[in-house]
Amino acid sequence: MSAVSLYYYLVLLKHIYVVDAKDQSRIITPTYLNVALGLVALAVVLLGVYPKPILEASQRPRCCSSNRHPDAMRRVHHNLPRFDFHAH
Predict the structure, then answer these.
(1) Is the pLDDT of residue 78 over 90?
(2) Alpha helix positions (H), the chain
(3) What is the distance between the alpha carbons of residues 54 and 47, in angstroms, rounded to a whole number?
(4) How confident is the model at residue 23 (pLDDT cuts 50, 70, 90)?
(5) What is the Rg, in whole angstroms, of the alpha carbon atoms belonging to the chain?
(6) How would you label 15-37 residue by residue, b for 16+ Cβ within 10 Å and e otherwise?
(7) What is the distance in angstroms between the CA of the first residue and the CA of the last residue of the chain?
(8) Distance (Å, rounded) from C-alpha 57 to C-alpha 62?
(9) C-alpha dihedral, 64 to 70 to 74 to 77, nearest 10°
(10) Which residues neighbour 69 within 8 Å (Cβ) at sequence distance 6 or greater?
(11) Are 72 and 64 in contact (CB under 8 A)?
């Protein structure tokens, strides 16, 4: 399977760098799309260099603060309606 993948990517690289394009016109993109792409690229670089805020946020409890009762979430989920998806 990896030989098929290698062939696919080599053909793709050949079309990118070797084969001349049929149409030489530039692709025009809207400004908002360029700004959005730039912001996402900046976020990827910043989070790659400094991932600590995201990692710390993922370690915190999501909905229960430390001063609440330990099984507060169990009581909250106990009061939610239950759905039986196997009922006919």
Answers:
(1) no
(2) 2-17, 31-49, 52-59, 72-78
(3) 8
(4) confident
(5) 25
(6) eeeeeeeeeeeeeeeeeeeeeee
(7) 44
(8) 9
(9) -20
(10) 75
(11) yes
Q: Which residue has the higher pLDDT, 25 or 88?
A: 25
Q: Tens digit of pLDDT for each residue in 46-63?
A: 999 999 988 888 887 766
Tokens of 72: 């507060």
Assessment of whether the complete model's pTM goes beyond 0.70: no
How far from 34 is each of 18, 29, 81, 86, CA to CA, in Å? 27, 7, 45, 48
- Give the separation between CA 85 and CA 82, rounded to whole angstroms: 10
- One-letter identity of residue 9: Y
